Amino acid sequence: MGTRGVIRDCMGKWLFGFANSARMGDLLKAKLTTVVEGLSLCWNVGLRHIICEMDCVEVIEACESSLDRIERRKDYTDII
């Protein structure tokens, strides 16, 4: 299980993609790592106004809340 994502502009045009084959046995950790990796890549190429879309409600909740809803939050706080 690794990470992968696509970065598009405001019109939906593909700018670049990324993938990492790092072995992570935990789906939530892989999804959180994907968000961090994608946002870091955007920052590094000068993109500052970013909308992040994701299909994992746990990650969305973790990013929007104080992590109270995630049972294993101590395992992911360093990523978020």
Task: Give the number of helices.
Answer: 2
Contiguous runs where pLDDT drops below 50 for at least 5 residues: none
With strands numbered from the N-terminus, the spatial order across the biggest sheet is 1-2
> Span between N and C termini?
19 Å
Mean pLDDT: 81
**Overall tally of domains:** 1
Tell me what the structure shows.
With 80 residues, the protein is of the alpha+beta class. It has one domain (3-75). Helix content is 32%, strand content 16%. The chain has helices at residues 27-44, 57-64; strands at residues 3-8, 14-20. Strands 1-2 form a two-stranded antiparallel sheet. A hairpin with a 5-residue loop joins strand 1 and strand 2 (14-20). It is globular and about 35 Å long. The mean pLDDT is 81. GO terms for molecular function: nucleic acid binding; RNA-DNA hybrid ribonuclease activity. Residues 3-66 form the RNase H type-1 domain.
Features:
alpha+beta; two-stranded antiparallel ribbon; 2 helices; globular; RNase H type-1 domain-containing protein; RNase_H-like_dom_plant; RNaseH_domain; RNase_H-like; nucleic acid binding
